[in-house]
Amino acid sequence: MMYRKIFCSFFKEEKEGQEFQIYPGELGKRIFNEISKEAWSRWLQKQTILINDRKLSLINPNDRKLLEQEMIQFLFEGHDIYSSGYTPVRN
């Protein structure tokens, strides 16, 4: 099966890219071009932790803005996300 290869900004290596733009606007284009499927999957796990821990509502524009800022920091700036009740798994 053929898949789209990109240089993933998150992993700093070539990985399988998204099949289509999964986020709107210019940021969505950047994610499509620079973030692998695997990195996006990791973000979705972190996003779920954030939503649950901070009791965020995707209906609330301020909560969506906060999630977008956290997403940018996680995917492009190397900041990990921890919640008050979350302990990362150590391998």
Automatic annotation (TrEMBL):
Annotated keywords: Iron
A single GO cellular-component term on record: cytosol
GO BP, sorted A to Z: cellular response to oxidative stress
Pfam families per UniProt: Iron_traffic
Single GO MF annotation: iron ion binding
Entry-linked InterPro entries: Fe_traffick_prot_YggX (IPR007457), Fe_traffick_prot_YggX_sf (IPR036766)
Family annotation (Gene3D superfamilies): Fe(II) trafficking protein YggX
Role description: Could be a mediator in iron transactions between iron acquisition and iron-requiring processes, such as synthesis and/or repair of Fe-S clusters in biosynthetic enzymes. Necessary to maintain high levels of aconitase under oxidative stress.
NCBIfam families found in the cross-reference section: PRK05408.1
Family: Belongs to the Fe(2+)-trafficking protein family.
Quaternary structure and interacting proteins, as annotated: Monomer.
UniProt cross-references to HAMAP family, sorted A to Z: Fe_traffic_YggX
Name of the protein in its database record: Probable Fe(2+)-trafficking protein
Record organism: Candidatus Profftia tarda
Lineage: Bacteria, Pseudomonadati, Pseudomonadota, Gammaproteobacteria, Enterobacterales
